[in-house]
Amino acid sequence: MKKILFIFVVCFQSLCFSQQKNDTTKTIVKAEKLKKEQKDDFSDSIQQKEYMVIDNQVLEAIDLDEVFLVGPFKFKNRYERRRYLILQKKTRHVWPYAVMASTRLTELNNRLNTIESKSKRKKYTKIVQKYIENEFTEELKKLTKTEGQILVKLMYRQTGATTFNIVKDLKSGWRAFWYNTTASLFNISLKEEYHPEEVEEDFLIEHILRRNFQKHRLKEQPPAIKIDFLKAVEKWQ
After folding, report:
1. Where are the domains of the chain?
2. What residues contact 232, with CB distance under 8 A and at least 6 apart?
3. pLDDT in tens, 98-115
4. What is the model's pTM?
5. Which is more confidently placed, 27 or 14?
């Protein structure tokens, strides 16, 4: 390739010189254009970044996930403070059962989705029911009426379904009806839902949960329902 170029240079010096001059001019123009593009790209990258000044130092801003810090509850009187502390004690007590129930229910549904036979699905459901009853029935019997109702609300928070419907799906509508009737004798409704934006007690429970999550006193588990906590705070505080 070099030999061929050499022959062309010898035979056509004037032409090559002229061509070289043109190429040089094009190279310069191309270089200037590339330099300008790089400058523009650099300017764009500068414009896309955000900076902040801390202690006279310019630092690049980094986007982080939004974190909502829950402050301590503002009590208006001693009655409110007492009510909150009692509710906090009961909520802490039943929260592990709500987490357990939602976890077991998720595992059950995931497993049932892989079983095609209706008889095998029914058999597997009974095995899970028996395990839960043997493992937790005695503990659940020790709950007070208030704790039982809080647990029902938290079950809705963690599963997105009322305890009544959960029992209905796992057993039968008739059994769920009697479960609800029996519970109603103790002022416990298995059809109770959970709405912190609308019900003050639900807001207090949610406030208690989030405060204890922050302090790592309770194991955090995201809710299965949408909760606009900021809206609830604005309404109740």
Report:
1. 78-236
2. 196, 197, 203, 206
3. 998 888 888 888 888 898
4. 0.69
5. 27
